[in-house]
User: What shape does this take?
Amino acid sequence: MSTRELIIREIPDTPEPLLRAVYDFLIFLKARGAPVKPEDAESLMALAESSWGKDWNRAEEDEAWKDL
Assistant: This one.
């Protein structure tokens, strides 16, 4: 299964705030104009955490993900 198919398969059960974060990150990567190299993944995660930490680090998010 392709990565595209895996992502599409996850969409129906994904909470709207998380979908928004994924969308924002996708737009960021596309605007960057360069493919993500494996060695860049760690620095991108740090950027995502600093940008979306206020959304991710909430009691509502913890509750939504507690069973996963």
